[in-house]
Specification:
The protein is α/β, with parallel strands linked by helices and 353 residues long. Helix content is 51%, strand content 12%. α4 links the parallel β4 and β5. The longest helix has 23 residues. Bound molecules: nicotinamide-adenine-dinucleotide.
Length: 353
């Protein structure tokens, strides 16, 4: 065994079906008495339901969360939180709602309970991305790590099959890059392999039967593991590319991850052979990149950036931006090879090393 450093993050995780019943117990453990419930406008009803469950511990609901955590939305929410003299936050939803909760917590120190309803994994990370004047900046600080994460499989049954597929692939991307991270370690790698395997097994079943509780349970468990991976070690080329493409061309987050992942993996294949073997084994495929491309095909998700709104004449610009301030990556970034990678992802072609 080679030397390694592993740092566990201090979060309490409650996982299962019907775990919402434990919500009161969990907020009482934290001693919270004036909680603001956060959600997107699409999940306003669920926010109201959480508020009802909290009873007199609820101080109100704010259902204005949107993607990429714009600072002006955070400021509006902050005013609401201060006016209502909140002593805690409850986020119910995907990465967008968790992002708002983290942004408020960063500015107020309020403890957070998060109930995730997608597979994005933000709830397990000390990472916050925020957008101001169209520019997204990301920071890593323990101040945004939720105190309690309550995973209730039943809440994911309503996640539409298409979004389940891309959100699940987004989760897989965290585990894939954790396996070849500069600071990879054997504990996180175990979680990464099991995370990929759980999601790869569950997602095809969810697409055919979105209310299958077994498949939903496996997928949410996989997403939890993948979220831990994202929070524990550094990400590489794939996350950099998605950050650039999503931010510059306003592409949808999970779809972009789904399309780019096989190509980023193919780019890194020769530089990270051991990680590739583990990814392929977790997918039950002979080849990591092809296995990911085939999985997206089975799930029926878009496999071309051209299909999700990226203009063809922006490929060159995307490549320029991708090699600017690069993240560490197992294979050095070569400008022309990166442009070819993006061009293949744009056209929806098979991944090539
Ligand atoms: P999202 O939170 O924007 O959710 C997408 C839509 O689905 C929303 O309208 C939401 O209300 C709805 N939805 C969520 N769960 C549902 C359910 N069970 N049933 C029906 N509808 C449901 O999407 P996301 O992909 O979860 O999150 C993306 C955002 O999270 C991005 O801004 C991304 O940058 C961020 N993110 C951050 C981290 C981190 O560690 N900081 C990690 C992953 C993602």
């Amino acid at each position: 065994m080679e030397a390694f450093i592993y740092e566990a993050l201090p979060a309490r995780v409650v996982f299962g079906r019907g775990t919402l019943a434990k919500l009161g117990e969990e907020v009482d453990r934290l001693g919270l008495t004036r909680i603001i419930v956060l959600a997107t406008p699409q999940q306003e009803d669920q926010a109201a339901e959480m508020s009802e469950r909290l009873g007199n511990r609820s101080a109100g609901t704010f259902s204005g969360a949107v993607m990429h955590t714009p600072v002006d939305v955070t400021e509006t929410a902050l005013n609401y939180v201060r006016e209502h003299r909140a002593d805690g936050l409850l986020a119910i939803g995907g990465g967008s709602t968790t992002g708002l909760s983290k942004a408020i917590s960063l500015r107020t120190g309020l403890p957070q309970v998060v109930i995730p309803t997608t597979y994005a994994g933000s709830e397990m990370t000390p990472i916050l991305g925020e957008t101001k004047a169209g520019i997204k900046t990301t920071q890593r600080t323990m101040a945004v790590l939720p105190k309690v994460v309550l995973y209730d499989v039943d809440l994911t049954l309503s996640l539409p099959p298409g979004l389940s597929a891309t959100s699940g692939m987004n989760a897989i991307a965290h585990a894939v890059e954790a396996l070849y991270a500069r600071d990879a370690n054997p504990i996180v790698s175990l979680m990464a392999q099991d995370g990929i395997a759980s999601l790869a097994r569950a997602l095809p079943g969810i697409v055919t039967n979105p209310t299958d509780p077994e498949a939903r349970s496996d997928a949410l468990y996989g997403a939890f593991l993948c979220g831990v991976c994202l929070g524990a070690v550094g990400m590489a080329l794939h996350h950099k590319l998605c950050h650039v493409l999503g931010g510059t061309f306003d592409l949808p987050h999970a779809e972009t991850h789904t399309i780019v992942l096989p190509h980023a993996v193919a780019y890194n294949a020769a530089a990270a052979p051991s990680a590739m073997g583990r990814i392929a084994a977790s997918l039950g495929s002979a080849d990591a990149a092809q296995g990911l491309y085939d999985l997206a095909g089975r799930l029926g998700t878009a496999r071309a950036l051209s299909k999700i709104g990226m203009p063809k004449d922006s490929i060159r610009q995307a490549a320029d931006l991708a090699v600017l301030n690069p993240y560490w990556n197992p294979r050095p970034l070569e400008r022309s090879a990166i442009e070819e990678l993006i061009a293949r992802a744009w056209a929806g072609e098979k991944p090539l090393p």
